[in-house]
Structures are given as structure tokens and as C-alpha cells.
Design goal:
By secondary structure, the chain is of the alpha/beta class. Helices cover about 35% and strands about 15% of the residues. It has 10 helices and 10 strands. The protein has helices spanning about 85-90, 95, 130-145, 160-170, 190-200, 205-210, 215-220, 250-260, 275-305, 320-335; strands at about 5-10, 30-35, 40-50, 55-60, 70-75, 105, 150-155, 175-180, 235-240, 310-315.
Length: about 350
């Protein structure tokens, strides 16, 4: 392999991670830089030709990289992992995955975009071609840089719980396993449309630039519930709380969720107090009740089509403690789809 490059961002001596950075995807996307975080983790700078912009991508290497391994793409929620609401900050996923033989790929960017291909540039959110990025641009670069075996899984929370279902539909065969935590697959009915418009609006975006006016064909084209028949053959895991208080919806539960030197999502030191808990239960409870409805709709649709999938429903709100737990619960399903040990 040629074109290696790594820059250390740690004060401790590191075992050099050797990565091929000379690959170029079909449309000219490329890896522009590599920083070595530690002996197992690197941060790439990937230029997307479709968006004409460079985005960070963090990758944790497999426990045993002696032969080609699969890649698991792990997506963040509404803010695209650009802030503190990310898998890296809010969970122990890196530690959990430390003994797994998979390349853990965590893209950063695309806040409030639903990781979709937008039909127009947006004055606030800019150019969004994330479906292209996650199906055509990034995977071949990851495959080349980390010598993967070409087998992929994808998982995501909240808004990305929609995205992770649309990617295998957009490019059949690219992803073999899918996990959606607290997501809403439906986008073209009244509830789904309202959900998408609310999230995009939080970021200042205009959904007319995303998929056109409400009722336009693009809304249905990106509706995984409508196209659920195209999910056949995937290993799938779905989860949602019901919006009622769960184990992380108490003072002690939030302390467990947000402790261990994790940074608070909004950088407020009082996030484990009663006011923060009340906010989580009110807002997070309402959102999770909606995702529960969506997830049960998907369960009914897949059952009607005779398509197997694993579903897990529990109490709880729209928050990180549950997503960390559900990722671990979903691992055997994801591993099975990628041809790995389920332990």
C-alpha cells in the first residue's frame, strides 16, 4: 500500500497506524489527511466531491487486523456529531468495541440534514448529498484505506434511524446489517412529515430544499416504511422506548448516564439536577413516544411482508443511556450480518 500518512495527536508514544490514503472514489472524493488519536483510533479528513467539502471521519481499527475485516458505520443524530451529542462523547462504545474484529467508522457532519441527498442547496445548511457520501464516496475510500473485506453494517440513532434504512434501499448489497435506535422510518405521512420538518427547522433549514414541498415524490422516495419490501435479506434490529420514565429518567439514572467524565450534551454542569431531568422527561418523553409509534408501524409492516427482524421495546425517553444499551443489545444482530462472532 502506498500513500501512507499519520499525524499523532497524543503526547504518548504511539504504535504507528499505517493507512493507504491514495485512493480516489469514482467521483473524485478522497482522503486529504490522517491524524492518529491513539494506537487504535484515527481521524480522517475526507473530501466529498458531491458536497465540495471536507468532513472528519473517526475510525477505530479491528482488534485483530491480520486479515481484511468488515466495516460498521455508526451515525449520530440531529447535530451530526459536530457538537457534544456524539457516540464518542456520550457513550463507551469505543471500549465495548475494543475486542471486536470490525472497523468502526463514525462520520462527523451533516447537522439537521437527515443524511439525505437534498434537491437544492439550502441558505443555512448548505449542500447536502449525504446519501451519495454514504453509498458512493466514503465506503470505497474506507475499503481501500483499511483493507476491509467489503462487508458493511450501518447503525444510527434518532434521525439517523431513518437514514440507516434508506441507505441499503438506495444501494442494495452495500450494507448487510442495520440497527435503528429510536428512529422513525416513515417520512411521507402526516406524522413523518411533521417530524422531519420539525428537526430540519431546528437547524434553520427549509425542507422544500430537502425533498420539495410536502407531498412531493421525494418524500415518499425516502420513506423506508413505504419501501420496506426492499429491506428483505438484511439482518435488522429496531428499538424504542415508549416515552415513560425508565432507568435513566431519575437523578441517579442520569448521573450514571452522564458520569464517568462524560461531557454534558449542552455543556451545563447542572444537567443531572431536577430541572434537567424534568426537561428530559417532557421533551425526550414526547419524542420517544413518537418514535415508538413509528417503530411499531415498521414492525407490523415487516411482519406483513414476512421479513424477519429483531425488535426491542422498553420504557424510557429519547436519551443516550438507552442508545448505549441498545447498541450493545443489537451487537449480535449486526455481527451476524457482517459474518462476525456474536460475542
Amino acid at each position: 500500500m502506498t500513500g501512507f500518512g499519520a499525524v499523532s495527536v497524543s503526547a504518548e508514544p504511539l504504535t504507528p497506524v499505517r493507512i493507504a490514503t491514495n485512493a480516489v472514489s469514482a467521483d473524485g472524493s478522497r482522503i486529504e489527511g490522517v491524524e492518529q488519536i491513539d494506537d487504535r483510533n484515527v481521524r480522517l479528513q475526507v473530501h466529498s466531491a458531491a458536497m465540495d467539502k471536507t468532513f472528519p471521519v473517526e475510525v477505530q481499527l479491528p482488534a485483530n487486523a491480520s486479515k481484511p475485516r468488515p466495516a460498521l458505520y455508526l451515525l449520530n443524530g440531529a447535530d451530526g456529531g459536530e457538537g457534544l451529542a456524539s457516540w464518542q462523547v456520550q457513550t463507551d462504545i469505543r471500549q465495548f468495541m475494543a475486542d471486536k474484529d470490525v472497523n468502526l467508522v463514525m462520520p462527523i457532519g451533516g447537522p439537521f440534514s437527515y443524511y439525505a441527498d437534498w434537491i437544492n442547496d439550502d441558505p443555512v445548511l448548505g449542500r447536502n448529498k449525504w446519501k451519495t457520501y454514504l453509498t458512493e464516496e466514503l465506503p470505497p475510500l474506507i475499503d481501500s484505506a483499511f483493507n476491509t473485506n467489503g462487508t458493511n453494517g450501518i447503525a444510527g440513532i434518532s434521525t439517523a434511524g431513518t437514514t440507516v434504512l434508506t441507505m441499503p434501499i438506495a444501494k442494495p448489497g452495500l450494507y448487510k446489517a442495520v440497527a435503528a435506535y429510536s428512529g422513525c422510518a416513515q417520512t411521507s405521512d402526516n406524522l413523518g412529515t411533521a417530524f422531519v420538518r420539525a428537526v430540519v427547522g431546528m437547524g434553520g433549514g427549509n425542507t422544500d430544499n430537502m425533498w420539495g414541498p410536502t407531498g412531493s415524490p421525494e418524500w415518499a422516495a425516502n420513506d423506508a416504511l413505504v419501501h420496506a419490501d426492499k429491506l428483505r435479506g438484511l439482518e435488522m434490529y429496531f428499538s424504542s422506548g415508549d416515552g415513560s420514565p425508565g432507568k435513566y429518567d431519575t437523578i441517579n439514572g442520569r448521573n450514571e448516564q452522564l458520569g464517568g467524565n462524560r461531557t454534558q450534551v449542552d455543556n451545563d454542569d447542572n444537567q443531572i439536577g431536577p430541572e434537567a431531568l424534568a426537561g428530559q422527561m417532557a421533551v425526550g418523553g414526547l419524542i420517544e413516544a413518537a418514535t415508538n409509534y413509528c417503530t411499531r408501524n415498521m414492525q407490523q409492516k415487516l411482519e406483513s411482508l414476512g421479513i424477519p427482524a429483531t425488535f426491542h421495546f422498553t420504557s424510557g425517553t429519547h436519551s443516550w443511556g438507552y442508545w448505549q444499551d441498545e447498541f450493545k443489545r443489537s451487537w449480535p444482530v449486526l455481527a451476524r450480518g457482517m459474518g462476525l462472532s456474536e460475542k
